């Protein structure tokens, strides 16, 4: 498996992957992991959503709308020749993690985290690997001191992953969303990056 920074060339495959993920939002026994209705989850990503990713990865950190994203790719079976396999099977995106700025002023020392893992590889350690990878990249390439995230409180598997990765629950807003007749709480979690903390 390869984990690396996303490029513009990855965006078409990334959008396909993200559309697949959104189709699973709140379906059957899956928790609601995005604050979207079923109708919204079943529709394709909007052009505005796509631009936030494709333009964000091109912007310098500190510029409005910047974003850095790591993508995880499946291992390719067969012989690889110049990025393609001889037997026709290509590696595919199986997970992502990104950081972006808060919308509020005076928060330049913090970033917001978002992530997802393909259903086919959930529970196999990829989420933990992605978190470790983005933390390492952030420490080496930025002056950020905290990584924050919002998670729907019903998404217990995600919360457990974040807790195992040393994120701390900072608070919860009960009844934050009312989606398809359900009241959903929203939890905020954060993690200080040890090398960048103020003394």
Main traits of this protein?
single chain, 199 residues, alpha+beta, Aminopeptidase, seven-stranded mixed sheet, two-stranded antiparallel sheet, 27% helix, 30% strand, globular
Write the layout of secondary structure elements.
Elements: E1 2-5, H1 11-23, H2 38-42, H3 47-56, E2 68-73, E3 80-81, E4 84-85, E5 93-100, E6 110-117, H4 126-141, E7 146-152, H5 156-164, E8 168-179, E9 182-192
Parallel strand pairs: 6-7
Antiparallel strand pairs: 1-2, 2-5, 3-4, 5-6, 7-9, 8-9
Structure description:
This protein has 199 residues and is of the alpha+beta class. It has a single domain, classed as Gcn5-related N-acetyltransferase (GNAT) (Aminopeptidase, 3-Layer(aba) Sandwich), CATH 3.40.630.30. Helices cover 27% and strands 30% of the residues. It contains five helices and nine strands; from the N terminus they run E-H-H-H-E-E-E-E-E-H-E-H-E-E. It has helices spanning 11-23, 38-42, 47-56, 126-141, 156-164, and strands at residues 2-5, 68-73, 80-81, 84-85, 93-100, 110-117, 146-152, 168-179, 182-192. The strands form two sheets. A seven-stranded mixed beta sheet has the order 1-2-5-6-7-9-8, with helices on both faces. A two-stranded antiparallel ribbon has the order 3-4. A hairpin with a 2-residue loop joins strand 8 (168-179) and strand 9. The longest helix is centred in the C-terminal third of the chain and has 16 residues, at 126-141. The N and C termini lie far apart (38 Å). Residues 79-86 have low confidence and may be disordered.
């Amino acid at each position: 498996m390869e984990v690396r920074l996303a490029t513009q060339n990855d965006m078409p495959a990334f959008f396909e992957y993200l559309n697949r993920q959104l189709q699973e939002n709140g379906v059957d026994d899956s928790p609601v992991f995005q604050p979207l209705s079923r109708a919204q989850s079943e529709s394709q990503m909007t052009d505005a959503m796509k631009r936030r990713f494709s333009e964000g990865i091109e912007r310098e950190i500190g510029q409005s709308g910047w974003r850095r994203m790591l993508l995880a790719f499946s291992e390719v079976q067969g012989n690889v020749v110049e990025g393609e396999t001889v037997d026709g099977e290509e590696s595919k995106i199986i997970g992502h993690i990104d950081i972006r700025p808060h919308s509020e002023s005076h928060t330049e020392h913090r970033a917001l985290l978002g992530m997802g893992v393909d259903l086919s590889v959930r529970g196999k350690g990829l989420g933990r690997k992605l978190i470790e990878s983005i933390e390492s990249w952030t420490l080496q390439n930025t002056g950020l001191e905290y990584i924050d995230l919002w998670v729907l409180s019903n998404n217990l598997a995600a919360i457990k992953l974040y807790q195992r990765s040393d994120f701390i629950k900072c608070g919860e807003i009960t009844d934050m969303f009312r989606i398809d007749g359900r009241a959903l709480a929203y939890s905020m979690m954060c993690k200080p990056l040890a090398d960048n903390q103020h003394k």
